[in-house]
User: Fold these one by one.
Assistant:
Number 1:
Amino acid sequence: MALTLNHYSIRSTDLDACRRFYEDVLGLKVGPRPAFAFPGLWLYEGDTSVWANSVVHIIGIDRNDPEGLKAYLGDRDEASLEGSGAIDHVAFFATGLAAMRERLERLGVARRERTVPNLGLHQVFVDDPNGVVIELNYPAIEDAARA
């Protein structure tokens, strides 16, 4: 199994302020993002045509239609989204999906899985003991091998 840091995600009620900060202060560029059922931005370091270069994902909160976000990542109280409480999850690129599934089963760790449309990416989400969500991103072909 191999892991490399992929991205971190922040939940925000102010996408524009986040965009300005990450573009102006850190020099990142807004680029393509899958058509999730909630607003957001993916900010890239380098070539925006390579989705693996997206290093910060801003998750927008649509107060008029929160259901897409709730269904995909779960609900969070807006009052908790200050400081590190705004960090939604930490993501790693990974290999060895079958071995990870076996490890999680053996350890009794609950997981949530889904495949991201158009990216060839299969995701496994687990919660650490502090409630921090860890996202493991595998090549979708590893999940297809199970079928």
Number 2:
Amino acid sequence: MKRELTGLKLEVGQEAPYFNLPATDGKRYSLNDFSTSQALAVVFTCNHCPYVKAWDDRLLELIETFGEKGLSLIAICSNDSIGYPQDAFEQMVKKSEAHSFSYPYLHDETQEVAKAYDAACTPEVYLFNNAQKLCYHGRIDNNHSDPESVARADFKIAIAEVLEGKNPVVPLTPAMGCSIKWKA
């Protein structure tokens, strides 16, 4: 069942909203492409946000650590590319190639997917279990500026719990980052 735009916040236990978006690798990806994943991480991101830049390498580490255990991760850029040309699709392609992204980087041109997820900032993460039900929503960890000073790696902990078939002990944390740049 597809969760359509309802104006309601996506809550823990609800199904992942459907998407079907173009990616920087030249393919299109939909929610259905991840139906066999043990866990699906949906990360709203962009190119220009300093918070995103600080966490980019940590996302790559997470997929390296958990990819073979059943984690699928996708990144979605929903920013207005007219007002923020560094977030245009062509720039997304360049970034994904420069960073050797090992996960799909999707373009939400209409911003409908960000609205369906009720995303507000970049980066903002949503973690779904193997039934595509929301288990965790929030931040990657508590320190974007210094990976060595992270006191709590909330997203990593939640991924490990979901892959063990558990519900995360901490399902919600405050996401930190730049606001999504909405179209006028």
